Amino acid sequence: MREVLDELMTTWRAGGTAGLATVVRTIRSAPRPAGAALVVDPDGAVAGSVSGGCVEGAVYELATEVAATGRPELQRYGISDDDAFAVGLTCGGILDVFVEPVSQKTFPQLDEVADAIGAHHPIAVATVIAHPDPSWLGRRLIVDSERCTGSLGSARADDAVADDARGLLLAGSTAVLSYGPDGQRVDESSGETDTGMEVFVASYAPRPRMLIIGAIDFAAALSQQATFLGYRVTVCDARPVFATPARFPSADEVVVDWPDRYLRGQRDLGAIDGRTAICVLTHDPKFDVPALEVALRLPSVGYVGAMGSRRTHLDRLDRLTAAGLTDTDLVRLSSPIGLDLGARTPEETAVSIVAEIIARRWGGGGRPLAAVDGRIHHELVERSSVASADGAG
């Protein structure tokens, strides 16, 4: 829903009803992940996507119908059949899409959710997508770390789902949870599959952060690319003449400070986590070595990369070793930064850097898909550190 929130809020504030379609479950090689959304406003305008094109037309029609009738519907879209006009996924995957009407009446807490997302406060939306009693469909529970608003239909269901939703929110995960009709816990060991109620929990954790060290032209290109991918970007440099908002319009913030001091401060605030990417682009040992000393000792960070030639890399390793970093620390460093794309310009180099970050996150090998057998889409790789890389921009 995050990707269509602006369009959804426009209709909501105007007092209208929109049709919201959300991918709640994927099977095999589905084109969009759970949480992907499409919204149709009262004038018929559409925003977002649930399949990258395969079933958009059918979902659009269903969302328009649901907005008019007010009756939510869970629809499965599978493989196309031999009929050229059949609606289906040519990729061989399966999507479960929940379509619901959204208005101030059906979703009174939407402004609360939008405010939390805008303020980077973690929040989860739990929605009943399947239940023996149709009146439960579309009921919601809004969950954060301290409180809940709304109700799924009973105190028992609310308590069970709130507890599980907080666990998913803490992990930044989105999932379909199964319960008995009144929120009873399902005994998986019994083999019982008729659970009665399914709840889709969408977690809206704050955007992941990218901390770019070094206010250079490559940093401007990387800031733009990272923002496009959904990162909250900070550019940090100790030189005020270079670290200015005008030079980095894509960044969320530009900080004038010694990078190592800034990183220590962010560490002490708990503002660096396993989704954070730290990219050191300075080429200057007095900046990059102290910053990397801090970054590589962080207990949890998603990615640490440093720009430079192979000669610069070897010199940097010697300096870091002399500073007391161990082989276990140094193996977390991606240097030279980026995948081997043959990049030369700042813009091309930025693509190579984010390509490596994406590959590390999802377990991709960085090879052409045409040269790889098996699944195209990978499962998320949970890791707090990364191995060293030989790739250069």
Automatic annotation (TrEMBL):
<dbReference type="InterPro" id="IPR027051">
    <property type="entry name" value="XdhC_Rossmann_dom"/>
</dbReference>
<dbReference type="Pfam" id="PF02625">
    <property type="entry name" value="XdhC_CoxI"/>
</dbReference>
<dbReference type="InterPro" id="IPR052698">
    <property type="entry name" value="MoCofactor_Util/Proc"/>
</dbReference>
<dbReference type="Pfam" id="PF13478">
    <property type="entry name" value="XdhC_C"/>
</dbReference>
<feature type="domain" description="XdhC- CoxI">
    <location>
        <begin position="118"/>
        <end position="180"/>
    </location>
</feature>
<dbReference type="InterPro" id="IPR003777">
    <property type="entry name" value="XdhC_CoxI"/>
</dbReference>
<protein>
    <submittedName>
        <fullName>Xanthine dehydrogenase accessory factor</fullName>
    </submittedName>
</protein>
<feature type="domain" description="XdhC Rossmann">
    <location>
        <begin position="210"/>
        <end position="357"/>
    </location>
</feature>
<feature type="domain" description="XdhC- CoxI">
    <location>
        <begin position="12"/>
        <end position="78"/>
    </location>
</feature>
